[in-house]
Write a structure and sequence with these properties.
Oligomer: single chain
CATH superfamily of the domain at 5-111: Trypsin-like serine proteases
Order of helices and strands: EEHEEHEEEHEHEEEEEEEHEHEEE
Length: 375
């Protein structure tokens, strides 16, 4: 049975509404980029007819109010929100020929709204988790639902003279708190239009895998291109040094590449070939120093990287970043489970393509089977 694809575009100040028919008719392509960390972005391309009012439609937001854009696709009856963000700029390229003019709208996810106003000196609760919750509460009007993971090693400091105060924008401060705890922060759109999940916690590399990416298996092949690279010299063992309170002697603690936050995705975990002393945590307490060491070890342990592209209508569903996916047909070294580090969605009329990058901290599959159709 042939796959079906439907694109839904919602546009409006603060509360987005379905885009009018002239906007949809002029839309030629949609590009959305999502990575495991950091900010996601999108780009909409339109054709402009003579005296087109399309430009005005993207300038109707009142001064000081962002124009919100929600992009959703439905593949085989399963809806997936790819982007919930705001427009940052639009560019018009006039044409003197018969090809017609074009307009490109560029934007970023809802973290862009968090990076506009400096909030220096704003008092906040003592613990990092409560600070993040207090900041994210201001964005409930955008449908942002916080998902905050408490620190595994609590770092609660009793204020002596005054409460902690914020420095910089909300986005910058939350990311700074995440870095101090060895965490990541991002906003994940969905599951419904107008709703997003603001995640503050460790980078999770376990869970139910997505349908397997298959190559070199005749009619089972569902990717257009897939390649892998093994870089053993990338592996690094970070060393966290803490001081003994009684003697003041430094105690070096090496962090292994495999930890509860970064389980092995393969059978053979290559030993790291480099050692790096983390001088930036020398003056920190044991808890924050260890958490930052675990995060660094996880980031530096991915000695296997893959890249490829696929047709979503052939694959059967939308490949999502920040999740696991199975791979088969590449050989014993790279078959098995991988972490989807980033995905770029490219949508045009009648087609939906994705390019992606994969990471893994080991060689040879540690599971006898991978789910061909997902779980």
């Amino acid at each position: 049975m042939p796959s079906s694809l439907y694109l839904t575009l919602l546009v409006g100040p603060m509360v987005p509404f379905p885009a009018p028919k002239p906007v949809i008719d002029a839309l030629t392509s949609v590009t959305v980029t999502t990575s495991s960390t950091g900010r996601s972005g999108f780009q909409l391309s339109f054709t402009l007819a003579d005296r087109s009012l399309l430009q005005a439609l993207f300038l109707l937001a009142p001064p000081g109010v962002e124009l919100r854009v929600v992009i959703m696709v439905t593949v085989n009856g399963i809806p997936q929100v790819l982007m919930d963000g705001v427009m940052r700029e639009h560019e018009v390229q006039p044409s003197a020929g018969s090809a017609g003019s074009t307009m490109t709208v560029t934007g970023e996810d809802l973290t862009a709204t968090m990076d506009l106003i400096q909030m220096n000196g704003l008092p906040l609760p003592p613990s990092p988790e409560l600070r993040v919750a207090a900041i994210l509460a201001k964005y409930a009007m955008y449908g942002v639902i916080p998902e905050i993971v408490p620190q595994f090693i609590p770092d609660f400091q009793v204020p002596v003279e005054m409460l902690p105060s914020q420095e910089g924008t909300d986005y910058g401060y939350i990311n700074a708190l995440a870095a101090l705890c060895g965490y990541v922060f991002y906003i994940d759109p969905g599951p419904l239009p107008g709703i997003s999940r603001a995640y503050w916690g460790p980078q999770v590399k376990f869970g139910l895998p997505q349908p397997t990416l298959t190559v070199n298996m005749d009619s089972w092949t569902n990717v257009e291109q897939l390649s892998f690279r093994y870089a053993p010299f990338k592996g690094t063992t970070p060393v966290v040094t803490i001081q003994n309170e009684a003697s003041g002697a430094p105690i070096p603690i090496p962090i292994p590449p495999v930890t509860p936050l970064n389980p092995p995705l393969g059978l053979i975990v290559p030993p790291p070939m480099r050692v790096e002393h983390m001088a930036e945590v020398a003056n920190k307490d044991f808890g924050p120093a260890l958490m930052q060491g675990l995060a660094r070890a996880s980031a530096e342990a991915d000695v296997v990287t893959g890249s490829g592209s696929l047709d979503v209508l052939h694959y059967g569903r939308v490949l999502q970043a920040r999740q696991l996916v199975g791979v088969r047909g590449t050989g014993p070294a790279f078959d098995g489970l991988h972490y989807v580090d980033s995905v770029t969605h490219t949508i045009a009329r009648g087609q939906f393509k994705q390019s992606f990058t994969l990471t893994r901290n080991a060689l040879v599959s540690n599971t006898p089977v991978v789910p061909a159709f997902g779980l």
